[in-house]
Amino acid sequence: MKAYLLLEDGCIFEGEAFGGVNQQIGEVVFNTSMTGYQEIFTDYSYQGQILVMTYPMIGNYGLNYDDVESQKPVIKGLVVREACTTPSNWKSEMGLDYYMKQNNIMGIEGVDTRMLVKHLRDHGTKRGIITTSLENKKDLLNNLLESNVVEKSYTPEVSTKNPYIIPGNGPKIALMDFGVKLNIIRVLQSYGCQITVLPYNTSVEDILKIRADGLFLSNGPGNPEGLISVAQNIQKLVNELPIFGICMGHQLLGMSAGAKTFKLPFGHRGANHPVKDLINNRVYITSQNHGYAIDEDTLNKNLYNVTHRNLNDGTVEGIKHKYLPVFSVQYHPEASPGPMDSKYLFDQFLNNVKGDKQAV
Ligand SMILES: NC(=O)CC[C@H](N)C(=O)O
Question: Is the pTM of this model over 0.95?
Answer without folding.
Answer: yes
